[in-house]
Amino acid sequence: MKAYEIVSDGGIDALALNDRPDPEPGPGQVLVRVRASSINYRDLSTIADPVPRGIPYPRIPNSDGAGQVLAVGPGVTRFAPGDRVAGCFFQDWEDGPITPAAMASALGGALDGVLAEQVVLSERGLVAVPEHLSYEEAATLPCAALTAWHAMVGRGGLKAGDTVLLLGTGGVSVFALQFAVLHGARAIVTSSGDDKLARARDMGAWETVNYRATPDWEKAVLDLTGGRGVDQVVEVGGAGTFAKSLDAARVGGRVSLIGILTGGAPNPVAIMRKSLTVQGIYVGSRTMFEDMNRAVAAHRLRPVIDRVFDFADARAAYHHQLSGAHFGKVVVRIEG
Length: 336
Hints:
Elements: E1 2-5, E2 16-19, E3 29-39, H1 41-48, E4 64-72, E5 84-87, H2 100-103, E6 118-122, E7 126-128, H3 135-138, H4 141-154, E8 163-167, H5 171-182, E9 186-191, H6 194-202, E10 207-210, H7 217-224, E11 230-235, H8 239-248, E12 249-257, H9 269-273, E13 277-280, H10 286-299, E14 305-310, H11 314-323, E15 329-333
């Protein structure tokens, strides 16, 4: 079978499409024919800079994939050949709080990822795909969607009438917008592109702010909320936007720190002054994934896909992700 491999620190264009032996499932394992894989910023970072992450060569990239069960190993009871499934980002985080063991089971990093025609995954690290979703749509759920759900719903307790601030229009933020609308919350979305902000409004965003036209966007957010601030911030920028996110949050509000897209040094004073809850979010457990999928299925939510690339053009998909031009998710379709 064919698989993309990180074989050096040469970046996107050094990804190698190589032959590997067809995998076979062992006890408690499931063989999956991968039909689609989506790209996250973390995948891009791993390919661009594998050495500091301790990535061994060769390593198959990408954490997120969906496909069809081809075979199951001894002892597997949750799945059967023909089932439509998606892999969990962490193969060893079924429920409860995250642990070091769970963190050591991340696909596309500590373990081989899913940008391949076939993969063997743990029965415990798979979930059923909502019936209304295509494989391409299902492949967007394991990291970006679950991260947004964990932050806003699982830990944030999102409810109708809450106001949330979402930075940008990448995968996590667009899913966060969809979940906010689903729960009856008011979402404020930032972006540097008016066309993207228009799309966000079409999806149900309550208000939008162009952060390029309005560099002091945190003040604009305070104005929009009558000086109160937002209940939750989904913070994907990192140190470069963190201080503004703290300022935009209400007293006693919550900031979910997810991304590291910008540089800079954070100032923690506002956390104490405003009694804020700041939580680090690293995807989520299988149980959270299953909870989210029930909501996705009940509301027939459809992930927003920016572009779908063929397997042979996977490098172009990473370049598109790198450009920042996408709205929602970038997906690679794997035929065969």
